[in-house]
Write a structure and sequence with these properties.
With 99 residues, the protein is α+β, with helices and mostly antiparallel strands. It has two helices and four strands.
């Protein structure tokens, strides 16, 4: 299972958030064996950027536990204070293709 978490960031907080997220994702990768990624839309609107955290290769039964760990770690790192609005979580699973 892969998790996609998107939210908005004020442009003036982007560099601070980037540093905190890089550190956070390294810890989560080591602790949970996920493959993290980070993306953002190329266009800013009204001083806001849209960012997306990606966490790949979670066992489906581990997703809820991982999201709790992510929320706790993010709160401890002060990430929630740097985003504008809510974090939106989407879950996707691989589709088995029959030949």
């Amino acid at each position: 299972m892969d998790l996609y978490i998107y939210y908005r960031v004020r442009a003036q907080h982007a560099n601070t958030l980037l540093g905190k997220l890089r550190a956070l994702q390294l810890v989560l990768q080591a602790q949970h064996g996920v493959r993290p990624g980070l993306k953002r839309r190329p266009i800013e609107k009204d001083g806001l950027q849209t960012w997306m955290e990606i966490y790949e290769h979670l066992a489906p039964e581990a997703a809820d536990h991982f999201l709790q760990a992510l929320a706790s770690a993010g709160a401890a790192a002060g990430i929630d204070t740097l985003i504008d609005g809510e974090r939106h979580v989407e879950r996707f699973e691989d589709v088995a293709v029959c030949a």
